[in-house]
Amino acid sequence: EIVMTQSPATLSFSPGERATLSCRASQSVNSNLAWYQQKPGQAPRLLIYGASTRATGIPARFSGSGSGTEFTLTISSLQSEDFAVYYCQHFNNWPPRYTFGQGTKLEI
Amino acid sequence: QVQLQESGPGLVKPSETLSLTCTVSGGSISTYYWSWIRQPPGKGLEWIGDIYYSGSTNYNPSLKSRVTISEDTSKNQFSLKLSSVSVADTAVYYCAAIVATDDAFDIWGQGTMVTVSS
Questions:
Q1: How many angstroms away from the CA of A88 is the closest CA of chain B?
Q2: Dihedrals φ, ψ of A80, to 5°?
Q3: What tens digit of pLDDT does each residue of B53-90 get?
Q4: Which residue of A44, A90, B23, B54 is most buried, as measured by CB atoms within 10 A?
Q5: Cβ neighbours of A44 in B, within 8 Å
Q6: What pairing do the DSSP bridges indicate for beta strands A45-49 and A33-38?
Q7: Which chain B residue is nearest to residue A98, measuring alpha carbons?
């Protein structure tokens, strides 16, 4: 079973700053990695898939990078609406299973 | 575009079966991958299972013995049944879909809170 680890659990930044969030896989997942943003009381929203492809409608300040076991979500200049919880997610082909990291809360 | 809406009881008694339905609009349930994902209060996301290609299913091994996901193509709906529930199954349950990506959930329902309590 592949385990996705996000650390730290909480990150504190100020608006306008650059934020880098990390996600580590317990074994190589190639580029099968997605990032989601979740705000209180809302469903998660897909930001990045395939490690680096922005989903439809996602602002260019969000970017993803990495492959293998180390992945990064970067928000180039934090806006007030970006303070939320971020999850990474991997799909394992066999046995078929989707696994989420435990999340990183981005706070002001 | 594809939209999802969960429905079902918000309260289930321990040992009983939790039943939820997701209604799909803007797309055919015979296409794409359709999942159930849950989130206990204050905790992270857990994939429960999915259904695709007219009835094929995959389940999270940790829940497999208690989970059944099925579809009703005439109503363009898919459903979740989770048996023998306990307090640990209290969560917001989301239905989600993979439509425009290979393996990431790009469409989500709003979620429905299910509480297990006597």
A1: 10
A2: -60, -35
A3: 878 999 999 999 999 999 999 999 999 999 999 999 99
A4: A44
A5: 45, 94, 105, 108
A6: antiparallel
A7: B47
